[in-house]
Structures are given as structure tokens and as C-alpha cells.
Amino acid sequence: SSHFGSSRLVVRPSWALLCPVGAAACRSGTVELRQVLAAMVLVEEIEEEEEPKENKAPAKIEGNKKGEGAVKLKKGFLESNSEPLYPPEGSSEGFVAPETKKAHAEHKMNQDLNKSMNKGAENNNNIERPSWYTKEWPKDCQYNAPGCHLHEMEASGHKSDIHREMVRGERWKEGMEPGIKSIRLSFMQATDEDMAVLVDHLKGNKDVTELDLSHNHIKDTGVQKLVGALAAGAAPELKELRIYNNDFGDLGKVMLTQGLKVMRKKLEIVWEEPSWMKAAKEAKKPQEEGASAEGASAEGASPE
């Protein structure tokens, strides 16, 4: 047996070749030793088993060099996070369809609406929830869960029939005429009760492009009626809605800014008092304070 490189030669005598007279004669010693040594032998080459080499990970993995925008991934790039996984332009896999974006926006709007409507039972007023409670129920309320109190939204209305007739006078009738593009109903003391009549007029109205409801007594209920109608497609050509200086609260604000704004993206909604009007009020304050001070000093002076 001898070693040559990575192979080992093994010499094995073949009894059939060494002993023409037969293998039994060789084993019995009738064949001389020198004849055996001079005889032919069979040589077999046996490959030795090499020791397994350690599989070393490549230092870096390169992408397709032929493709445009190939990204080179280096070892440990996820831990270091020094280079972005995708190029700045993004990739086709990261494209989000407009329908998907709209669905996500509507889902976020519903969540915000439900959260804002849950003012009276936040965290169930720290009362343990029943076993049958499910988190998906709107307003964080379900059936008669303890700690959950549902109340109707406050609504404004006319105190008398005379007041209703005054609000729905000549200006109101002019705004309700067919073909009118600008409906201006500001400073009319309009209430939620009038919103039902206005919504009926806006349904199917393709003429009106401007609606001014500022400086009235519209509360959350009236805002809900108006937002529901406009979101459903009433007054499709409406471009501007002015509804500031009314009596609606946080819920009405959410419906206008996060509800209607999503459904009518091209509609400009002015729910806050304009900056120029605030500046005019601030400039007028010193004059009013000076006039009131003069009046008080005049009253305090004794007549001669």
C-alpha cells in the first residue's frame, strides 16, 4: 500500500493470476514465493475522503448587473441599515393603486369618526368589558355595556313659527330659485331645522357652485345632514363651502375636515374664520376698549 498525492494505491494479489494451477495450490504452499512475487498483481486506486471545507458566506451578493437599477446587497446591510433596500425611485412592487389609497383613506376616516364620537365612554370609563364585547363595534359601545352611554346629538331649531318665517324670508327664497349659482345664506340665524330643506334643494342641483352658511346657528346635527348629502353626490358642481362661525363642535369639525374632505377632494371647505376677519377684529378691539373706557369715565363724573 502506497500514497500518491490524494490517492492511495492498494496492491491486492489475484489468486487466479498468481497461481495458474489454482488458488488452492498457492494457499497450500506448493507454489514458490519467488513465483508469487514475480507474478502480476491488480492495482486499485482508492480516492481518499477529503476533509469537509467550511462553507464561507460570500462577502457580498450582487444583483443582476445587466438589469438597470441593480441593487448591491452587502453583508449585514439589514443590521447597519446604512443603505436603502430600494433605490430612491422605488420599484414596481411598491406601486399603490389610487383605489387602494382611497380605501385606506376611507378606513382611516371611519376610525377617526368612531373615535371622535366616543367622547362619553373612552376606555369604557375604566369599567371591565363584558365577555361578549367586540372591539369592532362602532363608538366603542355595544348593546347596554356598562360605562357606555349614547346620547342624541344636540340640534338647533326655531323657537317659534314667526322666527322660522323670518329666516326663510326673501333672501332664503332667492337662494332657492332654480339656476342660482351662489347661495348666500350668512347672518340669517339658520338652524339645523333649515338644513333639511336646504339638502333637498341641493340634491340633483347642478347649477350651484358656491354655498355660504357662515354666521348661523348650525350644530353637529345640521353638519351631519349637509355632509351626508354632499358626500352622496348632491350639488356636484359645488366648488366652495363657507360654514365658519356656527355652533358645531369637534364632531362637526371632524365630519367636515376628515369626512367630506375625503369624499369631495375638489371642494374647498372654509370651516374656520378667515385670517383677514380675525385681523380686523383684533384691530377693532382697542377702539372698542377706548370707547367703553370713555363711557365709564363719563358716567362716573358728577354733574356740576
Give the SSE map.
Blueprint: E1 2-4, E2 7-12, H1 15-18, H2 23-28, H3 33-38, E3 42-47, E4 60-61, E5 73-74, H4 77-80, H5 98-116, H6 161-167, H7 170-175, E6 182-184, H8 192-202, E7 210-212, H9 220-231, E8 240-242, H10 250-263, E9 268-270, H11 275-300
Parallel strand pairs: 6-7, 7-8, 8-9
Antiparallel strand pairs: 1-2, 2-3, 4-5
- How far apart are the first and last residues' alpha carbons, in Å? 145 Å
Low-pLDDT sequence parts: none
Provide a count of the helices.
11
Radius of gyration: 46 Å
Order of helices and strands: EEHHHEEEHHHHEHEHEHEH
Q: Structural class, judged by helices and strands?
A: alpha/beta
Biggest sheet character = 4 strands, parallel
Strand order of the largest sheet: 6-7-8-9
Q: Report mean pLDDT, rounded to a whole number.
A: 74
Strand content: 5-15%
Describe what is shown at a glance.
The protein has 304 residues and is α/β, with parallel strands linked by helices. It has eleven helices and nine strands.
